[in-house]
Design brief:
One of its GO terms (molecular function) is DNA binding. The protein is of the alpha+beta class and 277 residues long. The chain folds into two domains: 78 residues, Multidrug-efflux Transporter Regulator, Chain: A, Domain 2; 173 residues, Multidrug-efflux Transporter 1 Regulator Bmrr, Chain A, CATH 3.20.80. The chain is 38% helix and 27% strand. The protein contains seven helices and twelve strands. The protein has a nine-stranded antiparallel sheet with strand order 4-10-12-11-6-7-5-9-8, sandwiched between helices. Strand 2 and strand 3 form a beta hairpin.
Length: 277
């Protein structure tokens, strides 16, 4: 029987887990040695227990607290491997979704930063071709810009995205419909959906933010060829006031967003104003 058992050192070498960790698992009651020598105190494990070690390692990699594993013990003291793996699977799926969300945000930032770097060397005004974007937006109810209202609506969009499981990206700002369509301003945040075509019916899906009694819409829009210019100011309040002032002389659809640059002084601000051609 003893020849079939593994010493704590052998388990450590086989699974890459320190003896100290194996003793800690024992303290938690999630990995009890098959045999403990009453004279030497040496611990021995059965080969059938190696699956338990593997599951514990997986839980650690997934960020599942080890102390919570004790809740999965059966009346006989053994771990309920099937239930624990089901929890691990749900955690892994959630981690994958979070990683995909982070990847979407990173890709969005890198794409926008690359496009902006290409524009920096061009004389103003310039032409910019914008690809199809999915955005979450809400109407702007005033004819003038107000910084507090802008921040409130932007916060509402981010909160709504979190509630709906929609990933907000690093692009946000304001947009306006063409003058012939009413010149209606909206605040928007670019978002990423897992299944964009399926989740947006007839081009848009509307929600209602009860806290602000504000309609929030998800739609695919913005793509097209634009005539662009840049506005610099001491902050976004000044820049967007300039946007509203300039917009009075423009007839096309407008998009105004912050420009990111590593060399920009934090006390300054740049807004890109695009008019659809």
């Amino acid at each position: 029987m003893k020849n079939e058992l593994l010493s704590i050192g052998e388990v450590s070498r086989m699974k890459g887990v320190s003896p100290k960790s194996l003793r800690y698992y024992e303290q938690l009651g999630i990995l009890t040695p098959a045999c403990v020598n009453e004279h030497s105190g040496y611990r021995y494990y059965a080969m059938s227990q190696m699956i338990v070690v593997d599951v514990i390692i997986t839980c650690i990699e997934l960020g599942i607290p080890l102390k919570s594993l004790a809740d999965y013990r059966k009346p006989n003291g053994l771990l309920d491997i099937a239930s624990l793996l089901e929890k691990g699977r749900k955690t892994a799926v959630n981690n994958i979704r979070k990683a995909q969300a982070s990847l979407a945000q990173i890709d969005s930032y890198l794409q926008e930063a690359h496009e902006q770097s290409q524009i920096e060397d061009e004389s103003l005004p310039y032409k910019r071709v914008v690809s199809r974007r999915t955005i979450m937006h809400t109407p702007w109810q005033s004819k003038h810009f107000d910084a507090k209202n802008y921040l409130s609506l932007t916060t509402s969009l981010y909160n709504c995205a979190a509630q709906l499981g929609i990933v907000p990206l690093y692009q946000w700002g304001m947009m306006r419909t063409p003058r012939e369509e009413g010149a209606q301003w909206s605040v928007f945040v670019e978002v990423a959906l897992e299944d964009e075509p399926e989740r947006i019916e007839n081009g848009h899906t509307a929600f209602l933010d009860g806290s602000l009694n504000q309609e929030i819409t998800v739609s695919t829009t913005i793509e097209g060829t634009y005539r662009g210019s840049r506005l610099r100011g001491a902050g976004f309040d000044q820049c967007f006031h300039d946007v509203f002032r300039m917009a009075k002389k423009m007839d096309g659809a407008l998009v105004a967003t912050e420009v990111w640059t590593d060399e920009l002084d934090p006390r300054n601000y740049i807004v890109e104003l695009l008019e659809k051609q």
